[in-house]
Structure formats: C-alpha cells, structure tokens
Amino acid sequence: MNEEERVLQDYQQEILDILRGQDDPAVKKERLEDYHANDMASCLPELTKEEREVFYSLLDMESLAEMMEYAEDAGQYLEEMDAQKAADILVKMEPDDAVDLLKETEPDIKKAWISRMPLENRKELQSLASYSEDLIGSRMTTNFVSLESNLNIREAMRSLIDQAAEHDNISTLYVVDENESYYGAVDLKDIIIARKDTKLEDITETAYPFVYADERIEDCLEKIKAYSENSIPVLGEYKEILGVITAQDILEVSDDEMAEDYAKLGGLSAEEDLNEPVVDSVKKRLPWLIMLLFLGLLVSTVVGLFETVVAQLTIVMAFQSLILDMAGNVGTQSLAVTIRVLMDEQLKAGDKLKLLVKEMSIGGINGLVLGFFSLVGIGAYIYFFKHMPLHVSIGIAFCIGISLLLAMVISSFVGTIVPIFFKKIGVDPAAASGPLITTINDLVGVVSYYGLTWLLILEIMQIKVA
Amino acid sequence: MNEEERVLQDYQQEILDILRGQDDPAVKKERLEDYHANDMASCLPELTKEEREVFYSLLDMESLAEMMEYAEDAGQYLEEMDAQKAADILVKMEPDDAVDLLKETEPDIKKAWISRMPLENRKELQSLASYSEDLIGSRMTTNFVSLESNLNIREAMRSLIDQAAEHDNISTLYVVDENESYYGAVDLKDIIIARKDTKLEDITETAYPFVYADERIEDCLEKIKAYSENSIPVLGEYKEILGVITAQDILEVSDDEMAEDYAKLGGLSAEEDLNEPVVDSVKKRLPWLIMLLFLGLLVSTVVGLFETVVAQLTIVMAFQSLILDMAGNVGTQSLAVTIRVLMDEQLKAGDKLKLLVKEMSIGGINGLVLGFFSLVGIGAYIYFFKHMPLHVSIGIAFCIGISLLLAMVISSFVGTIVPIFFKKIGVDPAAASGPLITTINDLVGVVSYYGLTWLLILEIMQIKVA
C-alpha cells in the first residue's frame, strides 16, 4: 500500500462531506452509522451552529451521547440545545463523563439540566460528584453488569443480555452474593464457553482485585495497573459495588499523575495548557519564582561572604558557575531517578538505603572522572592562556577539581535524601524537592570552592594575584 | 468497614499459606483457582525453587502461562524448568509478552525453547519480534477474534465461541471481508443484543479506527488514546489484520513514553531502575555530564572576560548566581510546558507562535515583578548592609533588576524556541533542549549583567570600589 492510499483514512473529512452533501437525510443517517464517535466529535468545532443542529437530528440519542463523551468542550455544545435535550443526552452519557462535564458548567445552567433528569440519574450523578478529585470514587463509572452468584450460566446469560443494552462494559462481569455484596468477577469469555447448567459461582474468581471508593488514587494506582485488567470494581463501605474503574480511566488517571509529576519537576505547580490565559500562568508560576528568588538571595549572601577571596584572586570567580551548574545537573539526575523509584509503594527501608548508596557511588565516580579532567584541563588553561605561574595554576585547578568532586557527591546525596525525606513527612517530593536541592547544592558548592581556595591559595600558599 | 478488615485483602499471603499448608494437592489446586494471576505471580520470588516446582504442578498450563505474563523476571523461572515445559508455557502466553520475555533471554536458551515450539507459534513469535521497538508492530498481540462479514449473528456467535477458548480479547470483534482484508469492528455487546438472523455486516462499524504495524508509536499514540477503545486493530501492507493493540498495551506504551520524557527532562539519557548496576548508570550519565562540563567551561570562559569588571567592583559577583539561577528556573518552566504542548501532533504553526508569545509574556511579567522587587530589596541591602554610597547602591541594584528582567524574557524565548527547533529538525526535544537552554541562558545572563554593570557603573558613573 502506498502513502497516498493511507491518507484516505481521513474520517473527519468524510463525515464533513456527508453532512454537507446533497444526500437525503435518511441516507446521511445510515452513512453516519459507520463512523466512530471520536471522529464525529472531531467535526463539531468545524461546523456552524446551524450545521451542528442538523447533525444532531441525524443521530439517535445513544450516538449523540457517545459523541459528546469524546467532544472537547462538550458543555458548550449542550448549551446550544434546549435544556431538556441536553439533560437527555447527559443521562445517556457515561456517568463519569457527565459528571466531569457538569463540573465545568455554570451553576444556573447545571441546575436547569439536572432538574430535567429522572430522579434515579440525578442521584447517581450527585453521588459520583461527591467524591473529591484525589479519590478513586471520582473516576469510577457505573457502567458495569452485575450478576447474582446463585444463577446458572443460562440464567446469567439472560440477565447479561437484559443489562447489556444499558451497560456495555461486559468483558468482565461482577458477581454479588445474596446481600448484594461483592463476591467476585468472571470473564465474559468463560461464560460464553461454559456449559449452560454450570453454576455461576463455580467459575467466579472470588479473589479478583478490587478497590474502595474512598482510597486515594495515588495510593492504589500502581496496584491497579499491575493487574492490567479491563476493569476493576470499586466498592463502598459495605462491600457493595458502587462502580468500576476501566482501563481507559486508568490510562487517563495515569497520564494525569505523570503529567503532574513532570510539570513539577519542570518547576510548575500544575500542568498548563496552550489555551490558558497568560495571567493564570503568571499566577501559577510567580509564587514559585518568588520563593526561588529568596533562596537565590540566600546563596548570593553566602557568596558575598567570600568577596575578599575574589578580590585577591579574581580569576577563581570565572569557575563558580561551572561548579554550581555541574552540582545542579547531578542533583537533578538523582532527583529524577529518586522520584520515579519512590512511586513504587512497596519500597522497603533497605531499598532506600541501597538507592542512596548507589546514587552517591555514581556521583562519586562521575565526580572523580570530571574532577580529574577539570584539574588537568583547567590547570593547563590557566597556565597557558591566563599566564599564571605554574604552582598557582595547579593550586587553582586543584581547588576546582576537588570542589567539583565534593559538590557532585554531595549533590547526589542531597538529590536522593531530600525527596525521600519529603515523601516520609507526607509532602509531594516532586514539587518540593527541586528548589531546596538547588539551594543546598549552591551553598555547598560555593562554600567548598571558595573555602578551599581561601585555605589553600591564600592561607597556605600565601598567593595574592588580583 | 474498619481499617483492620481492609487489610485482609492480602492475597499474596493467602496464596503462600495455601501453598505451604497441609491440604491435599487437589484441595490446594481448587483453592488456587480463585486467585488472580497477578497475585500468584507476586508469590514467586518468595518461594524456594522446590516450592515453585510444587506450585507449578498445581496449576494448569493456561494459569501457569497467565501467571508468567505477570511475573517479573519470568525468564528466570522458565529457565528452572525443563525446556519443553518452558516452550509449552511460552506458546500459551500472550504473544507480545512471550516476545518480550524471549528478547531478554540468552541466545542458546532461547534457541532451545523456540526449537521445541510448534511451527505455527514459532512463526508468529518471530514475526512479532521482527518489528523494531519504536514501531506499533512490536507492541501488538495476536490475541483477537476475527469474523467474516457475510455471516449472520447466529453464525458469528458460533465462530466466536470456537475462537474464544484461544483468544480472550472479545469485547471488540474484528470483521474481515472475503479477501481477509479488514472490514470493520463490532462490539460484542451489539452481537449479544442483536436479532439472530441480522447480517453481521449490518452492525459492523466500517470506519472503526486502525493503525499500521509499521507506524511509529510516538506518531500515533495520541491518536490511539483519543479513541479510548479496548483494542484497536493493527494492519499489514494489504490491510490484513496482523494483531491488535489493547488498552493495556496503550497504558504500558504511554507510561514508557512519559517516563522517558521525564527522565530526559531530569538529564538522564534513559530511565534507570534501582537494580541496575552502578557502572551501567555511570555509563548512561557520564557522556551527558561531560558535554555539560564543556558547555560549563564555555560559560566560565565568557565570565572570565569580565574579570576586570569584577576586580573593580567585587560586590557584583555575589549576585551572578542569582541571575543565572532565576534564568535557569524560568527556562526550565518554559521547556517543560513546550515539550508537553509539542507532544500534540496536530499543532499548527500559529499555535507555536502563540505559545512563544505567551511564554515570553509570562517571562516578561514575572521578570518585571521580580526585577522591581530585586531592585528595591537588593538596593536597600547593599546600602544598609554593605555600606555603599546611595548612588552606587542604586546603580548596582538597577543593573541587577534590568539583567533579571532581560534574562527572564530571553530564557522564556530560548526555553520555547529551542525545543520547537529540535522537534522541527527531528531531534528529540526532551533530551537535547536542557543543556543548550542552560548554556544560552547562562551566557545571556552573564553578558547582560556584567556588560550592563561595566557600562553603567564603570563607564558612565565612573565608580571604582574594589
């Protein structure tokens, strides 16, 4: 197949062509049935308000609701409709998507929609909306099929068919006991290939994993991922099934958590996107920068203490940035590794010690290599290009090499111990560690470099060159 | 339910208790059936080699294969078995997991296993293994059900039941035409609720999304994620279905890609883990650090050019670290935002310009705030604590404030444009941008700070204090 043929997979354009074509509405309707809701949703921003209205009229409620699950800014499209139609669509949508949409809607519009829903759906959405964002409950959907454990396969299949029209997450089915408590799970595949008179409970996996609705997402995400199932049940206080977390939910949550960590490592308090107003981004970043400014002033004050050293030997100040930058680089590497390792909940105290020793060994080895390299290279540079006497060149190069080694070992230590410490006291290590590590590293670098220079060159060797 | 009851969900301990208990093997066998393969896999490292052998004898081949899919270091456990048993297990495993496992196995052991497999499976694994790591083909599994489009629902159901024992990804079924070419997909739910004499092709979604096996993962990952389906078919050159990418595969791939970006932002060439030998980590990080050292030397050389400025006014060197650190912080923020925005493939040229303007505006506003703040604060500090004359204090503070503003605007620019540039020329922006941005920012900061100081304080105001 050549590239040209591949390009044909432009479903968005095909849908737009159908909508804007001259076909009979009935024909358009039938042709649209072949397309995926996600591709239909991607057409919405390309259409005018009037074209969208025609589009909606060509879809049944179910397709319309599914399309809205995929649409960005779905709320905006619902607001164009009359309130009753919007409410009907919301009722047909996956409950967790509906809740997300409602959370971003103006209170009075939200009220108008919710008041037009059947009581049962209203209750369901309100109960989902009641979980705070960091709890599993806020990400679950009530789209699942539950079967009673005392059914046989034939009865279970009938119950499944009854529920499947409403609930289409059917690759894993949940089994409840006579008290409606969670009993276990069964693969649809096993039901399909089982003999018709087998008891459902005989093929139920009773130790199928589950989570509680009030567990914190970050506490159980890794566990859920480890099972790599299509869905995992979410239980309430009395082991009743409140909903399920699907693989799609897990992907979404996992992406969000990672993106958050990533943003924090980059010195952002939260993820930002392209369409956010400048003033919001400023507000997010400024407090962080102000804190960093204060920490920077602290470092400057300490550097200021060594003014006399620099006044007597100005050449040494040129290499300050080198030592601080390298310490910063090494510290960031250790930080990035440590934060990732800390995400694993099952980490034992021994593992942390192992990590610390490992990071310091790496820092030490790299520091030895780079320190030696700098000693020779910078010594030669100062001797040949700055025309300093040989013993002064060697002395300064020695100070730089040793400070580099010291700074790198200590940076590795700090870059590892600080996030471990923050994790221990319950502060998010990805957010808090960066500035503290930079500040400590800068201070260590400055003090060891200028301190060593002062001691060796000015005090011991008694050299003054400025 | 109280915390104590919740702790009871320690399936690993339960399984260990069963294995080490006094029950009859038949009883143990039956009790083990209730547990999830992931929990059984987590027991493997806790057992001795002899206990593992007994464990395996209690499981049927299917459960054994499933457990190995979940086990870390599954290869190591297979090596303990005789080669024929290992080969049998590999054949039963999900093909993509089996390929992953084989990739990490010594060539001679791998050969021994593969030679003991049926020809068909051998071919299948070899074909999966032939895709390079960055292509979709390397992540697909051949676990899917395909049905012919000319069947009716009754016939389709029968064909499904035949295939379901081997292939248990059945929530979405794939439909092929008479030439075995991809025709579309159908939800199992729709088959279950459809009338028995409906034609399969009538309920098939013919524009269901698909990918080609030779597409690059990073090129189509966002597209696949947008459809949030349980599986998406992977097609070959002639539109034949080679396999599917499941939601679990997508989660795994997505995690890997994110972790890689994250590691790169932290200055690591690739993700590292706790158990990697120190020497491997040193090898990964050292080349990076050596490059950074050279860039640092470049900055030091430029700083060295301003030696005379510092010699005449040593107090200014104390604030060099402040300006460089702040520029670095702002640049990293812009970098982190830009890399995330660039992951969206559908980005237009206008969006990039918009991002650039936005980042520079944020940098400018933050720079104005912090620059003004520094001007007042540092001016007062120098006047009151360093006992400089008022006009000198104001002059130096002015230089610091202006340099800070300049450095922050330019850092925002550099932090945005550099990753966009690298992306354009096809270099991974997450890996390459960091050091270049730091270096440029350091140079800009140093030149503007010392240059301004030289111009304003030494040349215009003619002040020499050192």
Automatic annotation (TrEMBL), chains A, B:
<dbReference type="InterPro" id="IPR046342">
    <property type="entry name" value="CBS_dom_sf"/>
</dbReference>
<dbReference type="GO" id="GO:0015095">
    <property type="term" value="F:magnesium ion transmembrane transporter activity"/>
</dbReference>
<feature type="domain" description="CBS">
    <location>
        <begin position="140"/>
        <end position="201"/>
    </location>
</feature>
<dbReference type="GO" id="GO:0046872">
    <property type="term" value="F:metal ion binding"/>
</dbReference>
<keyword id="KW-0479">Metal-binding</keyword>
<feature type="transmembrane region" description="Helical">
    <location>
        <begin position="434"/>
        <end position="458"/>
    </location>
</feature>
<keyword id="KW-0813">Transport</keyword>
<dbReference type="InterPro" id="IPR006669">
    <property type="entry name" value="MgtE_transporter"/>
</dbReference>
<dbReference type="Pfam" id="PF01769">
    <property type="entry name" value="MgtE"/>
</dbReference>
<dbReference type="InterPro" id="IPR000644">
    <property type="entry name" value="CBS_dom"/>
</dbReference>
<feature type="transmembrane region" description="Helical">
    <location>
        <begin position="396"/>
        <end position="422"/>
    </location>
</feature>
<comment type="subunit">
    <text>Homodimer.</text>
</comment>
<dbReference type="InterPro" id="IPR036739">
    <property type="entry name" value="SLC41_membr_dom_sf"/>
</dbReference>
<comment type="similarity">
    <text>Belongs to the SLC41A transporter family.</text>
</comment>
<feature type="transmembrane region" description="Helical">
    <location>
        <begin position="363"/>
        <end position="384"/>
    </location>
</feature>
<comment type="function">
    <text>Acts as a magnesium transporter.</text>
</comment>
<keyword id="KW-0812">Transmembrane</keyword>
<keyword id="KW-0472">Membrane</keyword>
<dbReference type="InterPro" id="IPR038076">
    <property type="entry name" value="MgtE_N_sf"/>
</dbReference>
<feature type="domain" description="CBS">
    <location>
        <begin position="203"/>
        <end position="260"/>
    </location>
</feature>
<feature type="transmembrane region" description="Helical">
    <location>
        <begin position="288"/>
        <end position="310"/>
    </location>
</feature>
<keyword id="KW-0460">Magnesium</keyword>
<dbReference type="Pfam" id="PF00571">
    <property type="entry name" value="CBS"/>
</dbReference>
<dbReference type="InterPro" id="IPR006667">
    <property type="entry name" value="SLC41_membr_dom"/>
</dbReference>
<keyword id="KW-1133">Transmembrane helix</keyword>
<dbReference type="Pfam" id="PF03448">
    <property type="entry name" value="MgtE_N"/>
</dbReference>
<dbReference type="GO" id="GO:0005886">
    <property type="term" value="C:plasma membrane"/>
</dbReference>
<dbReference type="InterPro" id="IPR006668">
    <property type="entry name" value="Mg_transptr_MgtE_intracell_dom"/>
</dbReference>
<keyword id="KW-1003">Cell membrane</keyword>
<protein>
    <recommendedName>
        <fullName>Magnesium transporter MgtE</fullName>
    </recommendedName>
</protein>
<keyword id="KW-0129">CBS domain</keyword>
